[in-house]
Design goal:
Helix 8 (273-284) links the parallel strand 12 and strand 13 (289-291). It is elongated, with a radius of gyration of 24 Å. The longest helix is centred in the N-terminal third of the chain and has 18 residues, at 37-54. It has three domains: 13-57 and 198-317, no CATH class; 78-162, PK beta-barrel domain-like (M1 Pyruvate Kinase, Domain 3, Beta Barrel); 333-439, Pyruvate kinase, C-terminal domain (Pyruvate Kinase, Chain: A, domain 1), CATH 3.40.1380. Helix content is 31%, strand content 18%. The strands form four sheets. It has a six-stranded mixed sheet with strand order 4-3-7-6-5-9, with no helix packed on it. It starts with 8 loop residues before the first helix and ends with a strand. By secondary structure, the chain is of the alpha/beta class.
């Protein structure tokens, strides 16, 4: 705690204690891959059953990721098993001929974009499967690229295809995207913009030069959350674009990091030290969430991977210099700010000064809780809704005590509004937790 509120970086470093236990709650979100609708149904049922058993709600968040303009390979032919071995120095053909859509081999690999051969040039480099395999184009025909394998590896079905410095002329969204959106609505995962999904968070996945060039338009040039038609956050595929987007552009926008976080745990139960350092640095640099993809989708140790990442996140969060982070974010807040933002700023500052155990945000739309969370208080954002203001505060207090977030006698900062609805947050006060109610 003393390290988090130190007045200088030197004091912060000196006060860090390797023996200090991490926080009881992880602040950074972790996303994992779920491949089938049936799995999602089972997860929802498990969350419901567990909530009923414990007598309190345990919310489960599920997001649907649209395929979008992604170029992928086809399916590996059954005779080869799950993957083919593309060996360095040999030749392989990339074709858009649908005859090979489900018959990819060591000699021919299908590409799902029919104009791929028209838009790639001789000597271009092509990466397959998150840059694990590198090809160089030697010859081009109407539907086929003949490539030399510069860096070989095992290629599975439906892997991504990436060509540096080329913006492909493709539709903004495909028929597959429409199917995914309809499926998402049916299973209450996400909604379309408008009445069906105005309260649903929209995360922009930026991983192409075209996406980067339209960065401001994608984010809506907004410093607030949940505004209409505004992106709520951005997910960056690091190996392609992370170095091009400056921290200043990401101020007040949720940032999600994906790709190659715990790759070694696909086959091994123990991660590499460099991967743990990578995760810790993501947390220290301000990431809001981390994504595990292949590690949990096809890896041998999915549970161990999530457990390892959660543990690493907790340890890294304990090293954050919260005071400096808060002041840096305040400096980037536009002046004048609205009353909800002003109240959120005051709440986080008072929580720091009073060493409050929690910040309780009484909210009906969730916007106030998001604004408070934006300024990185050292508390996990968990929102719940009841009708009466006093009942909600007492409910939150009892729930926080049961979950171990706070103890009896701890100071709590309460953020609320003078009336129900969005945009009326203007009240901040300190109360003390008792066993049954919050005492002012």
């Amino acid at each position: 705690m003393s390290a988090a509120h130190a007045y200088s970086r030197l004091d912060h470093i000196l006060n860090l204690d390797i023996k200090a236990p991490p926080g009881c709650q992880r602040l950074t979100s972790i996303f994992v891959s779920v491949e089938h609708i049936e799995t999602i149904k089972m997860l929802r049922q498990a969350a419901k059953t567990y909530s009923e058993k414990k007598g309190r709600c345990y919310p489960l968040a599920i997001a649907a990721r649209l395929p979008g303009r992604k170029i992928r390979t086809g399916r590996i032919a059954e005779m080869y098993g799950e993957h083919v071995d593309l060996k360095t120095g040999e030749v392989v053909r990339l074709t858009t001929d649908e005859t090979y859509k489900e018959r990819c081999s060591t000699y021919t690999v299908y590409i799902n974009f029919m104009y791929f051969a028209d838009q790639v040039n001789k000597n271009n480099v092509i990466y397959l499967d998150n840059e694990n395999i590198m090809l160089k184009v030697e010859m081009i025909s109407a539907t086929t690229l003949t490539c030399r394998i510069e860096r070989g590896g095992f290629l599975g079905s439906y892997k991504d295809v990436f060509v540096p410095n080329i913006v492909f002329d493709m539709p903004n969204y495909s028929d597959t995207d429409k199917i995914f959106i309809e499926m998402a609505i049916r299973h209450q995962l996400r909604g379309l913009l408008g009445e069906k999904g105005k309260k649903i968070a929209i995360i922009a996945n930026i991983q192409t030069n075209a996406g980067f060039r339209n960065y401001d338009e994608i984010l809506g040039v907004s410093s607030t959350f949940n505004a209409e038609n505004v992106t709520n956050g951005v997910m960056i595929t690091r190996q392609e674009l992370a170095s091009d987007i400056t921290p200043k552009k990401l101020a007040n926008v949720s940032v999600i990091i994906s790709a190659h976080l715990l790759s070694s745990m696909r086959q091994k139960k123990i991660p590499l030290r460099s991967e743990l350092m990578d995760i810790a640095n993501c947390i220290l640099d301000g990431a809001d969430a981390l994504i595990l993809s292949a590690e949990t989708a096809v890896g041998d140790y999915p549970v161990d991977t999530v457990t390892c990442m959660a543990s690493c996140c907790k340890e890294a969060e304990a090293c954050l210099w919260s005071k400096q982070i808060f002041h840096d974010l305040v400096d980037k807040t536009p002046i004048p700010c609205d009353q909800a933002t002003g109240t959120a700023l005051a709440a986080v500052l008072v929580a720091q000064r009073s060493i409050a155990a929690a910040i309780v945000v009484v909210t009906t739309t969730g916007k106030s809780a998001q604004i408070v969370a934006k300024y990185r208080p050292r508390y996990s954002p968990d929102a719940d809704w009841l009708k009466d203001l006093g009942s909600r505060i007492n409910f939150c207090t009892r729930w926080a005590l049961e979950m171990g977030f706070i103890r009896v006698g701890d100071p709590i900062v309460i953020v609320s509004g003078w009336r129900q609805g969005s945009g009326f947050t203007n009240t901040m006060r300190i109360v003390y937790a008792s066993q049954n109610i919050a005492i002012e």
